[in-house]
Amino acid sequence: MKSPRNSAGPVVIIRPRLQLGATAAIGPGKIELLRAIGELQSISAAAKAMALTYKRAWLLVATLNQGLGRPVVETAKGGKGGGGASLTELGIQLVRRYDALEARINKAAGKELMALENLIK
C-alpha cells in the first residue's frame, strides 16, 4: 500500500483534508482506505490491514457514497465464490486526484518542509 507516512521519504509532509461540496469530506485516512480496498478487493481485508473495525471502514465508505451522491466502492455479496469490493471510477479518480494534489502541494512547499524537517532532527 502506498502511504507517505510509511515511506522512506521526507519526515515532514502535508496531508490535505478536503471538503467536497456540502456533505462530503476526504483526507488521508479515507484515501488510504480506498487505496487498500482497491488493492485488496475487500472492505474487510482493507479494514484489517489498517487496524480498523469492519464497521468503521464500512461507515467511512458509506459516508463517502452518500456524501458524493454516487458510490466510490461497489460490493459483491458473499457466498460460494466469496464476496468482494472494488473501487468505482469515481473512487479510482478520487485516489488519483488526491495523490496528485498532495504531491503538488508538497513540491510547492518543499523549502518550508525541509526547514521544518531540519528543526526536528
Automatic annotation (TrEMBL):
Q: Name one Pfam family in it.
A: HTH_1
HTH lysR-type domain residues:
31-91
Please state the span of the N-terminal signal peptide per the UniProt entry.
Answer: none
- Extract one GO molecular function annotation from the record: DNA-binding transcription factor activity
Q: What is this protein called?
A: Molybdate transport system regulatory protein
Q: In which organism is this protein found?
A: Sulfurisoma sediminicola
